[in-house]
Design a protein that fits this description.
Radius of gyration: 17 Å
Number of strands: 7
Strand order of the largest sheet: 3-4-5
Structural class: alpha/beta
Helix content: 40-55%
CATH architecture: 3-Layer(aba) Sandwich
Number of domains: 1
Number of helices: 6
């Protein structure tokens, strides 16, 4: 069992978390894939994926081209680029949320049940993308899931049982 601590400091790239600009950290360094998607309902699929890139300074045409590549990577074709989230299935919304997190360029990805609403083929594709990001591109990918196939594909697995964290 791991020991729980109640005090201390977290460092990110050698800087104390408490001294960081948290808005900048969340915008540029840490991307999140939410279980409930958190897509902007008034933006199209393409606009949702472009948004993080525009926040960090991409011009609109470059953001659009890059967003199309991320959407293609997660299996969203151009017939869905101009749909609003409410007109997409749960699995499609999940994949748009994943493309949006990739578009931020953040090297740390925190994912809450990223494959929970996906069919088997799309789940395997997303797991493969996350493995490539971690193993080849050097990203830190942290996933919270109940899905044992994701834990089987992971390098390090921690289990939570009755409030206790242990290494698998």
């Amino acid at each position: 069992m791991l020991q729980c601590t109640s005090e201390g400091e977290i460092y990110i790239n050698g800087q104390a978390y408490s001294s960081l600009d948290l808005d900048n950290l969340r915008r540029e360094k840490i991307a999140m894939i939410f279980q409930n998607y958190n897509l902007l309902p008034f933006c199209t699929t393409l606009e949702n994926v472009c948004y993080p890139m525009e926040l960090i300074g991409y011009n609109q045409s470059d953001a659009i081209e890059q967003a199309k590549e991320y959407l293609s990577l997660v299996g969203i074709d151009d017939t869905k680029h101009h749909r609003f989230p409410s007109k997409l299935s749960g699995g499609e919304q999940q994949r748009v949320a994943i493309a949006r997190s990739l578009s931020s360029g953040a090297q740390v990805i925190l994912a809450d049940e990223p494959t929970g609403n996906l069919d088997e083929q799309n789940k395997e594709n997303i797991i493969e993308i996350l493995k490539i990001l971690a193993h080849i591109k050097g990203y830190c990918v942290i996933i919270v899931t109940h899905d044992l196939t994701i834990s089987d594909a992971s390098d390090v697995v921690y289990c939570m049982n009755e409030g206790r964290l242990s290494m698998k």
